[in-house]
Amino acid sequence: MTALDIGQGDAILLRSPDGRAAVFDTGPPGEPAPVVAALRRAGVRRLDVLVLTHDSLDHVGGALDILERFP
Q1: Which of 37, 38, 39, 56 could form a disulfide with 44, with the two C-beta atoms 3.0–4.6 Å apart?
Q2: CB within 8 A of 55, min separation 6: which ones?
Q3: Residue 49 bridge partners (DSSP)
Q4: 19 secondary structure, DSSP code
Q5: Neighbours of 64 (CB within 10 A)
Q6: CA 59 to chain CA mean position, Å
Q7: Does residue 20 contact residue 27 with C-beta atoms inside 8 Å?
Q8: Euclidean distance between CA atoms 34 and 28, whole angstroms
């Protein structure tokens, strides 16, 4: 489990031993969203699961960027 440094908000990365990746919340929006750079720094190339816990901008703001950039 990794708490991603995305500024204000939450974004948690979970990885399984076999390389699968899940993200819980995406932090704030941006151009691109800070979560995109954080995931790339962590070596993530694809996501298996994206979970959005609630509809606050500091939790879901980067969701569209993730969906556009990670299969």
Answers
A1: 39
A2: none
A3: 22
A4: S
A5: 13
A6: 10
A7: no
A8: 7
